[in-house]
Each structure stands twice: as C-alpha cells, then as structure tokens.
Amino acid sequence: MSQQAGYSPSFKRPAEIMRMRRKRARSDAGACSGPSGRDSAGSPRQSGSSPACVRPFSPGPLFSSGGGGGTKRRNPFANIENTHSPRKKFLIYNDDGEAEASDSPKAIRCAEREAGEDVSTKRVCQGVLSFRESLTEAEKQQQREISSKKRLTFSEDDSLFEEEEGDVKSTLLKSPQAIAPASIAPPVCTEYPADWSLKTRLLFTSPLSLSWAEQPKAQEEALGLSQHCRAQFSTLPHSLQDPKSCSELRSAFQQSLVYWQHPSLPWISLFPRINAERSFAGKSTPWAQDTSLQQSLMREWSVSLSSLYSLLKARLCPYFYICSYQFTVLFRAAGLGGSAAITALISPTTRGLREAMKAEGIEFSLPLVEEMRKSKDHQNPAEHQGKEEEHDKISEDCSEPKKAADCRAGDDGGEDGYNEDEDSSFSWLVEMGVQDKIKKPDSISIQLRKEGHTVSLDHKPESVVCVEGPDTFTLINFLINCKSVVAAAGSQAGLPPTLLAPMAFRGATMHTLKARSVNVKSQVGSTYQNISSLEITGPILPSSLHTITTLLRPSQKGNFSATLYTHAPTAVMNTAKQQCTGGSADLSGCGLHPASVQQLQPPPSLGSTALTHLNMNNYSYTWKN
C-alpha cells in the first residue's frame, strides 16, 4: 500500500492528519473555484487539469471521471466492530509517543482543539459532550454496573431469552418482536374427547393420498375380518412411507369398518329409524299385514336383545344401541362413561313413555333438567331459599293422607321433577276474562300444571332419561314387552327396532361401513392443490370413529381433517350426570382396542352437543362441536 500513488506514509499523529485535511480543503477551493472563491458554473472541472483536486491521503489507486475530481474509496481497514461501536474511542498520544484509547470529555476536547475539525464534526462532538456532561457520576456508575451484570442466555427450550444476573430487563425482551412465534406453541393434544353419538357420514381430507383405504385384496379383507372376530390388533409404526403397500394397515382398516346389526334386511336400510319414512316408502314389507310374521320377528329380536345385555353385563360387549322409530337407547357397560355401574340413556322421550317406565318401577333421572334447575338456583340463591322455606311450610300443613299427596304433587311440579313459575294451563281463561269467575280446585290445577310442564319436554333434548344399575335390567324387560317400541301404523309398522353393536351377539349379522376415496383439486390462493378425500357412510359407532382416526395418524403423517355428520337425536348421548362415580372395571375382554377403551372410560365432556369437525396438524388434534 505504501508504494501506491496518492498514499501518504506519514500517517502518525492526529494533529498532522487534520492539518493535511485543512490543506486539501484550501487547495480544492483554490483550484476548483473562481476568483471569488465559489464554483464557476460556466467552467466545468476537468479530470486531470489540477492534481490538487485529488485527495492525497486516500489509499488505493485514483479514480477520476470526466465530471468531477478524485473519489475516496472505502477505508479497507474499517470493520463492523469499529464502525458500529456504541462508544467512540479517541487515540491520544502521551509524551513517550505511545497511543492510548480514551473516551473522556477532556481527551475529546483536546483532540478537537489540535485537529481543528470542521463545523459539522464540531457540532456532533459538542452534542456528544453535552450529553455526556449532563450525566452525573451516580448515573454513570449505575450504567457501568448494569452493563457489567447483564448477560443474555438461552433458556432450556431455546426460544426465550433469560438474564442470568441482574434484575433489570432489557427493552428487547419487553418488545413483542423479540419473542419468536415458535416460542408460543399451542399445546399438543394427542386425543380428542369421546363422542357417544352415532354418525351417519365421515368425510376425511388430507394432502397425502387416501387411495390405500379402498379396494382391499381378498387376503387383506379376510385377515381384517378374522382379526375383528378374534379381537386381535396390529401394531403400526409411527409414520408410514408407503401406506398403499402396507398390508397390515389395509387389514386393520377393514377391521375398523365392521359392525353387527339385527335385524338385517338387504333391501331396506335399517338405520336411521327416526324420521326415515322416505327410505321405507315403496319397499316390500311383507310383515305389515301378517301378524304371525310380526310375532316371529319380535321373538328373534327379544333373544338378540337378551344376548346383548348378557354380554354387556359380563363386560364382553362395551356398549350397544337400540334404534326404534321414535327414540334411541344407549347401553354402556360398567366402567365406561365415568360410571361404575351399567347405564342407559334414552332420547328423546315422551310423557307417555316416562309414565309407563314409572309404572314398571324403573327409577330414572333427567340430567339436563337437573342441570337447568341447579344453574337456575345458583343464579337466584334468595329465590331458591324462599322456595325451600315454602316447601317446609307446606309440608307442615299437609296432615291428611290425601292432602299430603296433593301437596307432594304440587311441590314436585311434575313427575319428572321439572317445574316452572309460570302457569300456562289456564291462559285461555285469562284471554276470555273469566278467570276470576271460575273456581279451580287445587288438586286439578296442580295436575294440569304438572301435565303442561311434562308435555313441554316431549321430543326435545331435555327429555333425555338416564337409568343406572339394576334398573337397566328392568328396562330391558320393559322394552321387550312394551308395544310402543314397534310402530302400529306407517311404513315401519310391525318392524322391530334396530340393534347395533361393535361385537357379535346372537342373531346378529356382520356388516361393514362403505368407504370411497376420491382425489380432487382445491383452489388455494391462485393455484390448485391436489387433495385426497375419503368418505365413509353407515352407522358409525364411537369405537369405529376412534379406530379409523388412529389409523389415519401414521398413514397421513399426522395431517388430516374430518367432517362428522351426526344423527341428531343421539347428540344428547354425551350428557353426563352431575354426580358421576368413576369406574375402574376391567374391560380388557370387551373386544375393543385398548386405546379406544381408554378414550371411552372418562365421563363425557361434550355435554348435549357432538363433534362436527376434527383436525390433526403435526400429530396434534383440534376439534369443533
């Protein structure tokens, strides 16, 4: 560098450097300006006319253009550290000729006085000096202690910064931009809540192909049916590279599609049964006018129902459904749904059915009605206390047996335990204006009020009935002998209810759900993306839904979504009792996958709703209900 033209080897003292800068400024002004000291617009500069236009201390070769003087190239000795240093250090020389680094105001003023910097540099230095002098010695000492104590480190998850020493938080840590989006990760849900409702259709979509789920080979289908009957389950890896060539996956998928049904009529779809008159219209129903055929069908149906309850009681069948033309019954084994005893849920119900169950001595509860009453009492505690005092006063006044019975009926407000403050039974008298002229007996008004409230629950989700323990056996006998479980007229006349179960039982027929895979193109922004879909139709049981989603996890590499279509009357089957006793019964022999049993054991958490959407992203579930 010392041999290149235009380089000054006497680069020693700051004072000498500043004198060279002032000399260059005077030579540029004398050579490139007019007589008055200003640039003349009429005489443009020439590139090689005046060597004084070139900066003699600029290192490197000279670059000149036709329109101006020599240009200073970037300092080759500059780096990021000294150009972006927060505190500028000035070099001063002591008497021995050695350089020292100092940032004191006195050193800066001395360097400025010796160098004789130009006006702009002086202004900058004056601003820095005024700022530094404004700080007191205490503030300077505090800043030194903070800067020496603070040290940023990574935490264990390498996502957030921590300070090992010192209590002062950095401004960078307080700003939202300092925290990376990956540091606030959503919780990983490897399981979704149990859904006890019956599904009529499932629609799965995934960016990966789902064509492996249809058209199984004969050997794969046979193996899947055999594994279902023997309650054997295959162990699949966490992720599959080629699901279509995995025979174990395809066999396990066929196994998950199996369910058992009674009765079985190939030309008629026996699910769903509620509001399904159109599916029966125009179909051959030879039992409609044949009484002996109807009796034969009911005998076989009674045997199958008794077999199912025996399996349920022995914990060899986890649950089963009874689908009639006006209601659906879900029987669950002990240990499922958070109950230590056998439970049965009936929905929807009518006043006539509840009265008939009471006549048979079946004790039941209305979970949703009790929940509504408790929430109402919790919101109005004063009113609830007043009702209790009134209840005690009425109990004291009821001395005669008949009068006591009337009082008890009035307190209950209905045999279903559902009572309200408003009396709409005699609203027509109020509209006519004769309510004061007619004397109403107390017992009759109480009875009319009770009937009005109980009838208002009919065919609604709030009419769901829960039966527990030994009363479930009485309920089985009631359903076998009850004539209202079979339609007396219409397209379903004389046809017994449909029995659905995940395990084989006496008189049952094995059925499989229908699966169909389709590849479609979906528009994402301005491009089209290939999306594979899988549609499954039929009476989809809770264990089947869980097994299918478990198989889609490794085959789709933890990325898929599902739309669930629920049979509306069964959505309320997710209702849980207020006082639920946890069950720890052994269900290892019920025939379900252990993961499915584990999912169905806790109390239902969906309330009176059912799942409508499932989404798995990076092996984590999200859902909507």
From TrEMBL:
Q: Which GO terms describe its cellular component?
A: nucleus
**Disordered: annotated segments:** 1-84, 373-422
Q: Where is the composition biased (Acidic residues)?
A: 412-422
Source species, domain of life: Eukaryota
Basic and acidic residues bias: where?
Answer: 373-411
Task: Give the UniProt keywords, A-Z.
Answer: Developmental protein, Nucleus
UniProt keyword Iron-sulfur present:
no
What range does the record give for the signal peptide? none
A single GO BP term for this record reads: nuclear DNA replication
Localization, per the record, is: Nucleus
Stored PANTHER family: DOWNSTREAM NEIGHBOR OF SON, PROTEIN DOWNSTREAM NEIGHBOR OF SON
Family per UniProt? Belongs to the DONSON family.
Q: What is this protein called?
A: Protein downstream neighbor of Son
Q: Which organism is it from?
A: Scophthalmus maximus (Turbot)
